[in-house]
Design brief:
The complex is a heterodimer of chains A (116) and B (113). Chain A is built from no helices and 11 strands. By secondary structure, chain A is mainly β. Chain A is globular, with a radius of gyration of 14 Å. Chain B is mainly beta. Chain B has strands at residues 9-13, 18-23, 31-38, 45-50, 55-56, 61-64, 70-75, 84-92, 107-112. Chain B has a 5-stranded mixed sheet, with no helix packed on it. Chain B has a 4-stranded antiparallel sheet with strand order 2-7-6-5, with no helix packed on it. The relative contact order of chain B is 0.34. The chains are: A mainly beta (116), B mainly beta (113). Chain A binds chain B through residues 4, 31, 33, 35, 41-45, 48-50, 55-56, 58, 90, 92, 94-97, 100-110, and chain B through 32, 34, 41-46, 49-51, 55, 85, 91, 93, 96-103, 105.
Amino acid sequence: DTAVSQTPKYLVTQMGNDKSIKCEQNLGHDTMYWYKQDSKKFLKIMFSYNNKELIINETVPNRFSPKSPDKAHLNLHINSLELGDSAVYFCASSQAWDRVGPGPQHFGDGTRLSIL
Amino acid sequence: DAKTTQPPSMDCAEGRAANLPCNHSTISGNEYVYWYRQIHSQGPQYIIHGLKNNETNEMASLIITEDRKSSTLILPHATLRDTAVYYCIVRVSTGGGADGLTFGKGTHLIIQP
């Protein structure tokens, strides 16, 4: 029973297309995130949603639009795909607090996006 | 968030304890220390976190110095499956816990058979 699941695992598409990546978590967490890991392996936060409300929107082109239909789902839609969008995209979720401090984030296995 | 410094790579023999250091000399009183790892081709995996007390869970132990300027992640009996990039992250909560994590370059830990 996967905690944070992303689909698809691999996505190969042409430049200029529009695509979506879906994310679902069954942990009952209130907050969900999207991260991007580029070819140099740096992981960067893109968005975070708390109870379906956008909290963080880092400097990301507006071709990227997250959508949260409910707090268990956070999808990422990308318009007019460019070569530079090739990367691995990770979804994560967390609860606000635990015994020690801010709740740790739990990640999915990633979606590998390749733009031809 | 405070900057962290980690060695780029480390080796450890299988079955031995792996001790991964992290320097966070500019940490503030309300910042927490988190450790994650990323095994090749997988998503980052949470390991442990702490504020000032040492912490232990089923995966590892976290030792934070008294001045909180550095910490050590200990994997007590390393196995080949522990080969991964380990990230030490310092984060302050904005209150809602919805802040993003800032990943550095981490330490590439290689467990030798």
